Fold this protein.
Amino acid sequence: MKKTADAIIIGAGIIGSATGYYLAKKKLKVYVLEKRFPCFGSTGRCIGGVRQQYTHPLSINVMKESVRTFSTLSQEFDKDVEWFQGGYLFLAHSEEKKKTYLKAIQIQKEYNIPVKFVSQDDCTKIINGLSTNELLGGAYCPTDGQANPFAVTYGYLQGIKKLKGKVFTNTEVTKINLSSNKIKSVITNAGEYFAPVVINACGPWAKNIAKMVGLDVPIEPERHESLVTEACERLFDPMLVDYRADGCYFIQNYGTGHFIGCYTPVPNDPGYHTNASSEFITEMPRRMARLVPRLKDIKVIRQWAGSYEMTPDGNPIVDKTPVQGFYISAGMCGHGFMFGPALGKFMSELITNGKSSLPLDDFALNRSFGKTETMK
């Protein structure tokens, strides 16, 4: 029997699952094709933070919608997605970083983000046991938060199934067929699937999928590592961010008490490899304890690596393409989980209405990539 849908999503991470769900709510028959299993890629390896503290106006507006959506998902899915608004605190250990945050706060306040620069003393009240060494203060937004990437993604996928869509795992796309520059079908290791619309939500592999329709998109994978510790008593609520070259960022899960965190490698580590390193498992706990000394004896229980999907300006690509019926929502630069709910909504509007309620021009495929994000 011919397998036919209104829209095919390639990739069952947060971006693909959210987009598919909101398309299914608009009465489209949705197929999600995943080469391994849901959350196999970047989504299942992220640390679950959700923030509105950006400097790019479009990213700020996207995140305002995402925060609104995260706050309703447990009710919508009838399951707990572990959404908790504990905030984000970006630490300033230099005058230069303080100036950067103050400029960012000016932009964010224009969009009614409840962010402020707080003193060293206030930082220690927000973060129990925070080291004040070289600390000048920080940028704090109490309405940022955290959620469970698996619970959110599977909630969307279960919603697709309830809306008569289908999710196909272990189904790898090997070719996309076109007819007169229009999407015709998708060939996989499990057969051929037909639809007039295909959404490339493949994260680190988005460039490879785009090549199947003759497009070259500037998205490259970059390895990042993370770890999780044993649980301990509640210490603080926000995501703690230290943007120094030897800094890190980590958060305590509000439900379990485990700490989960990561840092950006210097220099960057491009490529698809996701091997974990002895350097990270040694360095990350040291960086955490430098910020919060009482964590010096906490035990690490697991480490892993995954891929950021990087673009030249640090912003996503969310757009239709020159190939009729082929859309891309990828290049999230490490922010896919938090962007996912809003971008899923806006992409579903773009596909069904020809435009989204929030214009996505600054995330266009053919942009100049000159408007970089400061709060990467």
Notes: The chain has two domains: 3-48+149-219+313-363, 87-143+220-310. Helices lie at 14-25, 57-77, 95-110, 120-126, 149-162, 206-211, 278-291, 336-353.
